[in-house]
Amino acid sequence: MAIEPSLETPSTPLASSARSWQGHLSLEFAQRSARTILSRSQVQAPLKVQRPFYPADDCACHTVMLHTAGGIVGGDRLSISVQLQPGAQALVTSAAATKVYRTNGLEAQQQVQIQVAEGACLEWLPQETIVFDGALYRQQFKIELATGATWMGWDLTRLGRSARGEQFDGGEWRSRTEIWQNDRLIWIDPQWIQGGSKMITSLHGLATCPVIGTFALIGPEVTKSMIETIRSQITLSQMSVTRLQTGLLCRYRGNSTTEARRELVHLWHLLRREYLGRSACVPRVWQL
Length: 288
What we know:
By secondary structure, the chain is mainly β. Helix content is 12%, strand content 44%.
């Protein structure tokens, strides 16, 4: 699922085809001796990447993505490609929340393609996305895993700038995630929310909650006892945990990005220790 906004933006610009971006970011990680390095990076504005850093108590290569235009407008076409070579360990996040502005009719799109080789692990942990009222936004994820590969990721979204009292009364948010392993589709998660629809107010939908989130661990087998352990540590009634054939899925539906992030980070700590054999090392760009 998705997230919630907490930004103070002085105005809400309209999309214009003349201002649309065709941005691209391509990253490749490789294992060199005892360290994972960013072996290749290609960028096209407005997408960029900071120099990787290596926390002293973590073996993963931490990499921060940047969107230098300040937000996404209608007509934007952004693509991100991430590839991990065998044994590589990488954590990818973003420098700040992503803002998707209301549009004059053009749809904004972002496509993410991820390939994780045997024995490699990618932690995909971007900060939240804020979808303004009236925005048209579609995101697509395709994740391809080799045997023995692990992907752990989340998506946190706020529909409307609810901190300002704004509701998601118009526009559209679409998200589709596909995870493949050895050319076999193992999990698919399509989502579609129209602004002002009954889905937003229905008790079987969002129940007027502006913040939605999804956390998934795909790769290792998760036991029933581990699911029960996780459920016992969740403090929010707005969160649920489901066991998958090759991992687990957690959903959040609530009113606070801060609350959702706190619980997802706690879950990340637990799963990182259990399945990656190391404690969680919070990226320095996060403000928790």
